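Re: the 486-residue chain
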Amino acid sequence: MNASEPRRRWWPRSVRARAALAAAVAAAVLLAGTGWWVHREIYRKSTQVATEQAAVHVWSLVDQLKEGVVPPRTSTVPYEVVATGRRTAVAYGGGMDDFHPGTHHVMPAPTGEGAPNFVRLPVNRDYNPGLKGDVAGGTQQVVSADIGPGELSSDAAAALGVAADARVRVYVVVLPSAAKDITESTDRMLLRAGLAGLVLIAAVAYCTVRIALRPVEAIRVLTASVNASDPRERVTVPATGHEITALATTINTTLQRLDDAAAQQRRFVADAAHELRSPLTTLLASLEVALAYPDRTDWPATATTAARQTRRLQALAEDLLLLARLDTRAPVSDPETVDLTALASQLADQYPRTDRPLALSCDSTAPAHVRGNHDECERLLRNLLDNAARHAAHRVQVSVRSEDDWVVLTVHDDGPGVPPEDAERIFERFVRLDDARSRDQGGTGLGLAIARDLAHRHQGTLTLTPRTLGACFSLRLPRAPAPAET
C-alpha cells in the first residue's frame, strides 16, 4: 500500500453507523450475559426437577420392595436394586439391562457408609440415543435409598431372593437428557431472539441518531455559506432544549464574535488609514509647496514641519505595531518584580515640562510590587500620564496603594472630565472626545487602548472612576511578594 494513502480502518466513518455498531455491541454483551445466566438457571432448575422426580421414584420402589414385589423392568427411569451377599442385582430396569446386570450388578454394593451421589457406569457400546431413558455410561448422578437389615419381612425377603438380614439399596439414575433438551431448546430460542434484537437495536440506534443529527446537518450547511463578505448569517436554534440547542447557540455566539471582530478590524483599518493620511497629506503638501517655490520657501520651517509630521507617523506606527503584538495574546516576556511606586515616582519626576504650568506629583512612598515586564509597565503608566497631562488644567496627581491582593494605582487630573456615557468608549482605538483639539496635540488616539490591553496582559484592569472634578483612571494589578533582600 502506498504510504501516502490513508490507512483504512475497520470501523465505519459515519456517526450513525458508529452509534448503531456501538449499540449493537453493547446489546450483544448484555444479551450474551443474560443468555448465559438464563442457560445456567434453566439447566440448574431442570436438573433439580429431574432429581426430585428420581427421589419420588426411589421411594416408590422402596415401598414395592418392602411389600415383596419385584419392580418391573419396563421403567422410564434407569434403576437398580442391589443387596449385600448377592452378586447379581435384585431388580433393574429402564435401560440398565444394556450393562448385563444379570451377570453382576452395576451399582456399588451397599455398605454401612453413606451412598454415593455420583456413580461411574461402564460405557454402553450398544447405546442408542433414540431410546428414551437409555444411559450411555460414564459418571452419572444417582439418587438412592436403603432398606436396613430387619426392615424386610421374611416373606418379602424370600420373594426378593435376599437374606432377611441383608441391606438393600435402591439406585435411580438422574437422567440429564431432559435438562439438556430443555436447555438446548431454550438456547436456540434465545439465540434467535438475540439476533433479531441486535438487528432491531442497531436499526433503531441508526434511525434515532440520523434523526437527531438532522439539525446538525442543517447547521453545517448554513455555516458553510458564511463567508468573510457576509458573516451575518445565523443558524436556527431548535426549540427542543437539548444539546443541539446549545451547539446552535454557541455557533451563533461565535459567528457574532467573528462578525464583531471583522467589523472592528474594518473600522480599525479605516481609522488607521485616516490617521496615516492626515500627516502624510500635511507632509506632502508642505514639500510640494517648497519644491514649487524654492526661492520663497522658508526651508527651516518646512524641515521643522516635516520632522514633526514624521515623528507623528513614527509614533503612530509604533502604536499600531504594539497593538498588533498585544492582539496575539502572547504571554508576558521575562516577567520580573516591578515596584509601581518607584516607577510612578520616577516617571513623575522625569516627565517633560510643557509650555503651560502643570503640577505632576506622586504622593505614595510605600513599595507596591507586581509581576510583569518593566518596559510594558512603564509604557502603561506613561500613556496614563500623557493622557492626564494633555487634558489637565493645572494638576495631575498619582497615588499607589495596596488593597488585599491587589495594587491600585490612580491617575487623577483636574481637566474637564469624561461624560458618564463615554466612560468605556474612551478605551476604544482612535477615539477622541475633544474633536476641536488639533491632531498634533491630541495624540494618536491609541494611548488608552494600549494601556488597557497592557493591563489585561498583566491580569489586571483599567477603568475610569467617577469624579466630580476631572478624570480619574484606576489601574488594578495583582500584588506580588517583595523580592528577597541580599
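The CA atoms of residues 290 and 297 lie 5 Å apart.
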